[in-house]
Amino acid sequence: MPKITEILFDCDNTLVLSEELAFEACADLSNEILAKFNIDQRYTGPELLSDFVGQNFRGMVVSLQQKFNFQIPHDEMEGYVSQEEDRVIAKLERDAKPCVNCTPELEKLYASKQYGLAVVSSSALRRVKASIVKVGQDKFFPPDHIFSAATSLEKPTTKPDPAIYLHACKVIGKKPEECVAVEDSKSGATSAIRANIPTIGYVGSYGGSEKQKEMTEMLTGLGVKIVMQDWKEFPDLLAKVEAM
């Protein structure tokens, strides 16, 4: 296996505890959309999180349209995407916190100068940057090493599409096998694996040992070889990946 020279981090609930905040913020907007199209279903933030974790808002609304058989016109969709981004960013700028023990590990990686560090997210670029700035992690990532499936690609998409990982590798100038991805969700891990990037799963942002066990089984079932419960484990687990 080639030497690992770049680490690609998902953002939401991997670097920053942002998913619950984001889904709280977009539940109202999703329910407004469903009401407008005469769909009786309504969601709470936790229900949206459970059904659509790892997807960006655009991908989630596409899934809602498929599930409930309705169609949003293109221009209207773009307006909803913009509204959701503004609502979520306002909440993140107020309340976002880093994942437990994550920032000290980023400090060590950054100081070691052994690896390039990048963020590869499904979320909009403004949202990703707002999250990492709020928790003080922006100093670890060059501005041109922050990638968004919603914003950075010519055609917006969302994980599990591997396009954003392949784009990040191309821009950074690395082969997938020279990288390691860190992902917390089914869609994120699937995206990295489809791009042929060795992947470390992270389940520390899931509350309770039962949920963490369930997520560990799901991630390993996808092909994730190593799963991390606490960021303190990262140096040892990265060494295991490098030894594979």
UniProtKB/TrEMBL annotation:
Top-level taxon of origin: Eukaryota
InterPro entries linked: CbbY-like, HAD-like_sf, HAD-SF_hydro_IA, HAD_2, HAD_sf, PGP-like_dom2
Pfam families, A to Z: HAD_2
GO molecular function, one term: phosphatase activity
PANTHER family assigned to the protein according to its UniProt record, in alphabetical order: CBBY-LIKE PROTEIN, XYLULOSE-1,5-BISPHOSPHATE (XUBP) PHOSPHATASE
Protein name according to UniProt: HAD superfamily hydrolase
Lineage, opening ranks: Eukaryota, Fungi, Dikarya, Ascomycota, Pezizomycotina
